[in-house]
Specification:
23% of the residues lie in helices and 24% in strands. The protein has 188 residues and is an alpha+beta fold. Strand 2 and strand 3 form a beta hairpin.
């Protein structure tokens, strides 16, 4: 596909998102802070909950939802990730264990998959459990192609290899609020 053929639909989508006709990757505000709209710089998060079936990710602080995001998952998202290349997003309890500001996606926070149980099940079956599961923004090449519109554009559908994707604007908010060691609960 030529750059022009990719650029025009993305610009149209950005305009529709910007004026509120299409809600791609929209952030909703939970209760907390000043009327639920805590500034990103002061947003505190002590847990992340991913609801795979609903395609939602919630940031929590002291048990209260402070942000909710629409997300994209692995291209075969149903079920728990068990094998490298299966396109599934893991399920279970993990932690944020690394940050990558130079990812091929706009920022990325690594989830501690695979854990000991994931590695053991894969070893019993003689396969690799896979790894490198992240919460990240959109592909860097997409952001470069659409410029400022890349902040709100979120590719439609489940397109990752098992990661959790949000818009670039959203991943920047998450990046500033989430620390290494933050628990991540991924539910079916």
């Amino acid at each position: 596909m030529t750059l022009r053929r990719l650029f025009v639909p993305l610009v149209i989508m950005a305009v529709l998102v910007g004026i509120g006709i299409v809600g791609v990757g929209r952030t909703t505000f939970g209760q907390g802070g000043q009327g639920g709209q805590t500034a990103a710089a002061t947003l505190k998060v002590d847990k992340i909950v991913v609801l795979k079936a609903a395609r939602r990710m919630k940031l929590l602080y002291r048990g209260r939802v402070v942000r909710t995001y629409s997300i994209a998952l692995g291209f075969a998202a149903r079920g728990h990730k068990t094998t490298e290349g299966d396109g599934k997003t893991p399920e279970g309890l993990y932690r944020i264990d690394a940050r990558n500001p130079n990812s091929s996606f706009h920022l990325s926070l690594r989830i501690s998959y695979p854990n000991a149980r994931d590695r053991a099940q894969a070893r019993r079956r003689g396969v690799s459990p896979g790894g490198q599961i992240f919460i990240h923004g959109q592909p860097s090449r997409l952001s470069a192609a659409v410029g400022a519109a890349g902040n709100v554009i979120a590719l439609p559908g489940d397109w990752t290899l098992g990661c959790i994707a949000v818009s670039n604007r959203q991943v920047r908010e998450i990046w500033h609020a989430v620390r290494i060691g933050t628990p991540v609960e991924l539910r079916a």
